[in-house]
């Protein structure tokens, strides 16, 4: 079972301690049964010593049971914490392109649904392990009573396990299918929230969405879940049936054969009945652990791994800061998207481009010409498939990629605005923030207290201004704006192109602006045009473009 491996890797010493406690707990349970058996065998004619022993063992059993569970709870808590942190760090460390290929909804399903299922599976482990320990303790006592009968009992347990595996095989396949459908359902539910306006405005679309998508997938999930539930109920009943058959054989068959003393048979009956509860519980937790296994595989399929936790979990990316540079050069840089629907490719590049410190460059081109892709290559979010990027003549390698990205502050068109100024609060930030809030004409809308934005419930244009504010605070040598001005009113658009951009340039910043606002192209030192993924030499110089536009 993968979870045990997870716990062992998290803290081998704790797991050994848990095992020890569990075995002691099992032994004390066995002692309790032996004592009950002894009392019954002596027709309840026992002295106060046995009664005291019963109380003592009872208390010890409870304490050990509690101790084992508390230890496993702690171990689980640690394992879950490590797993969450590891996953979060791994997602941050996973190349952007790989996450995009997996699809953001899939990543979200893994981070929410699968993590929840794995957490639940880890949550039932204390019960599972404690019950296994009780069963083991009972088996030791039963071996002492009669090892031949124990062999019989173990055969019954083995039969239950084989029966479980045979019956559960189809259910486990169904669990995998359910997980796939749940992924699809999650994606559809995203449509429910993100597409709410489109759904509200169009009755037929709404009806089709609810019946053909959500209802269709939900009913598939429902059918599978009912089937899975029934199969696991049957596996539980099988265990119970075999256990009754065993007890029945002890009471009605064995005395006739005369192989074993009646007192031993009574002891076995009591122990077998006592064992039923923990074994039943083990059977009930197995489906939850199976679900956990399916989710575990999903996490792995995302390219993330939970195999090794603790010390070798990937550390937070190092903060590498290159404060300055003279040139950034793209030499034959390429990136290819595969287009499933046409079984074709869209290639950006090979791009040859040299950028100098302090330049103000506009990147222009039609929709889908590859501007954002080139921006992702330039900022190091995509690693070039072909060619290389050089900073001051030094090629960027896998090792220096992270530090290269720290040269950039970017506001992409699908930017995300964090509610806190994460990693940006330092001495003098408050006055800087105040300055930028007035510069961006936001001081009457937003306050920032203790690094927290008073609101992000703003218009898209206003949120973009806040994203620009964080970019200002980052104070990196290169700025990249992907159609930043597209959602600004004409007056502020003019402020952006004619005041903010030149101001950044005056401060020595290099600025790359993806823009469709041709009337402001003249502000740029250079205008680069992309067409079908290729950089084409601008037909006109920047001033000429401006002249044409005005
Ligand atoms: N994540 C992706 N997966 C597959 N193909 C993609 C992906 N992103 C972009 N593409 C494809 O690459 C091409 C270039 O896209 P890109 O977003 O770079 O263009 P753009 O010039 O920024 O367009 P726009 O002006 O519309 O924002 C598009 O034709 C698009 O189909």
TrEMBL record:
CDD domains (UniProt xref): ABCC_MRP_Like
SUPFAM superfamilies linked: ABC transporter transmembrane region, P-loop containing nucleoside triphosphate hydrolases
Regions that span the bilayer: 46-64, 115-143, 149-167, 231-253
Residues annotated as domain ABC transmembrane type-1: 16-291
Major localization listed first in the record, in broad terms: membrane
Alphabetical list of InterPro entries matching this protein: AAA+_ATPase, ABC1_TM_dom, ABC1_TM_sf, ABC_transporter-like_ATP-bd, ABC_transporter-like_CS, Cyc_pep_transpt_SyrD/YojI, P-loop_NTPase, Type_1_exporter
Protein name according to UniProt: ABC transporter ATP-binding protein
Lineage, highest ranks first: Bacteria, Pseudomonadati, Myxococcota, Myxococcia, Myxococcales
Gene it is expressed from: syrD
């Amino acid at each position: 079972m993968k979870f045990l491996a997870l716990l062992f890797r998290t803290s081998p010493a704790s797991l050994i301690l848990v095992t020890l406690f569990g075995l002691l707990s099992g032994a004390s349970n066995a002692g309790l049964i032996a004592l009950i058996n002894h009392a019954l065998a002596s027709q309840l004619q026992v002295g106060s010593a046995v009664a005291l022993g019963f109380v003592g063992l009872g208390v010890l059993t409870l304490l050990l049971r509690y101790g084992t569970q508390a230890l496993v709870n702690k171990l689980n808590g640690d394992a879950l914490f490590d797993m969450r942190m590891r996953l979060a760090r791994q997602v941050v460390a996973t190349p952007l392109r790989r996450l995009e290929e997996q699809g953001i909804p899939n990543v979200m399903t893994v981070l929410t649904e699968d993590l929840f299922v794995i957490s639940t599976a880890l949550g039932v482990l204390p019960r599972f392990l404690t019950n296994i320990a009780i069963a083991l303790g009972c088996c030791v006592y039963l071996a002492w009573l009669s090892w031949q009968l124990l062999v019989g009992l173990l055969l019954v347990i083995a039969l239950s396990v084989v029966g479980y595996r045979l019956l559960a095989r189809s259910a486990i396949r169904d669990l995998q299918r359910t997980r796939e459908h749940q992924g699809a359902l999650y994606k559809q539910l995203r449509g429910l929230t993100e597409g709410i306006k489109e759904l509200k405005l169009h009755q037929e679309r709404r009806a089709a969405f609810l019946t053909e998508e959500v209802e269709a997938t939900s009913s598939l999930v429902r059918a599978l879940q009912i089937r899975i539930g029934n199969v696991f109920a049957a596996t539980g009943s099988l265990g119970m049936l075999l256990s009754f058959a065993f007890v029945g054989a002890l009471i009605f068959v064995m005395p006739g054969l005369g192989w074993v003393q009646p007192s031993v048979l009574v002891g076995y009956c009591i122990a077998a009945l006592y064992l039923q509860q923990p074994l039943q519980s083990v059977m009930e937790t197995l489906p939850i652990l199976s679900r956990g296994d399916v989710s575990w595989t999903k996490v792995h399929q995302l390219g993330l791994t939970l195999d090794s936790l603790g010390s070798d979990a990937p550390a937070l990316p190092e903060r590498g800061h290159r404060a300055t540079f003279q040139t950034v050069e793209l030499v034959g840089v390429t990136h290819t998207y595969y287009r499933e629907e046409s079984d074709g490719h869209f290639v950006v590049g090979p791009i040859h481009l040299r950028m100098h410190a302090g330049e103000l460059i506009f990147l222009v081109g039609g929709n889908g010409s590859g501007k954002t892709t080139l921006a992702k290559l330039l900022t190091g979010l995509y690693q070039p498939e072909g060619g290389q990027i050089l900073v001051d003549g030094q090629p960027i390698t896998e090792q220096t990629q992270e530090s290269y990205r720290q040269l950039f502050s970017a506001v992409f068109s699908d930017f995300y605005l964090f509610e806190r100024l994460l990693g940006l609060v330092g001495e003098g930030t408050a006055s800087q923030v105040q300055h930028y809030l007035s510069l961006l004409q936001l001081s009457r809308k937003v306050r920032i207290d203790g690094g927290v934005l008073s609101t992000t419930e703003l218009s898209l244009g206003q949120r973009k201004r806040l994203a620009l504010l964080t970019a200002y605070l980052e104070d990196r040598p290169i700025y990249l704006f992907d159609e930043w001005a597209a959602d600004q009113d004409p007056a502020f658009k003019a402020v952006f192109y004619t005041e903010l951009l030149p101001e950044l340039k005056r401060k020595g910043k290099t600025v790359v602006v993806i823009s469709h606002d041709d009337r402001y192209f003249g502000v740029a030192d250079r205008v680069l045009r992309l067409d079908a993924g290729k950089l084409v030499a601008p037909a006109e110089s920047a001033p000429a473009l401006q002249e044409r536009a005005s």
